């Protein structure tokens, strides 16, 4: 920070000042400009994709639970179906995430 002389009243003022505090004369440079702040992205994906991924994982876990419990032939097929739907939903979420937020 350097001191410069005001062109109007010859008082010493900061080179970062917008105007002279003694006489109000505006400075030529307009004062010190703050450096531009960078935008920092914290999260890459939106809530819609995250919710879809969570639902897909829930479907897969429910399918695994049905297969593990082995509720007869229908429960086993339903379990595999839930795992397949969860897997397809997970793949879809990955594609949407890539497409929207690349």
Q: Summed up, what is this model?
A:
It is built from two helices and two strands. It has helices at 47-69, 72-100, and strands at residues 3-5, 12-14.
Question: What would you say this structure looks like, in words?
Answer:
It is built from two helices and two strands; from the N terminus they run E-E-H-H. The protein has helices at 47-69, 72-100; strands at residues 3-5, 12-14. The chain has a two-stranded antiparallel sheet. Helix 1 packs antiparallel against helix 2 (72-100). 10% of the residues are buried.
Write the layout of secondary structure elements.
Layout lengths: L2 E3 L6 E3 L32 H23 L2 H29 L2
Antiparallel strand pairs: 1-2
Query: Unreliable runs, pLDDT <50, ≥5 residues?
Result: none
Structural Rg: 32 Å
Helix content: 40-55%
Assign the structural class, choosing from mainly alpha, mainly beta, alpha/beta, alpha+beta, or little secondary structure: mainly alpha
Q: Helix count?
A: 2
Number of strands: 2
Keywords: Membrane, Transmembrane, Transmembrane helix
Organism: Burkholderia gladioli (Pseudomonas marginata)
Transmembrane segments: 51-68, 74-93
Protein name: Zinc ribbon domain-containing protein
């Amino acid at each position: 920070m350097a001191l410069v002389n005001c062109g109007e009243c010859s008082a010493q003022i900061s080179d970062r000042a917008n105007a002279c505090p003694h006489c109000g004369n505006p400075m030529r440079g307009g004062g010190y400009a703050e450096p531009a702040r960078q935008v920092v992205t914290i999260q890459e994906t939106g809530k819609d994709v995250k919710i879809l991924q969570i639902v897909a994982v829930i479907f897969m876990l429910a399918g695994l639970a049905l297969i593990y419990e082995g509720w007869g032939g229908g429960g086993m097929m339903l379990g595999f179906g839930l795992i397949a739907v969860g897997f397809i939903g997970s793949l879809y979420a990955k594609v949407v995430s890539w497409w929207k937020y690349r």
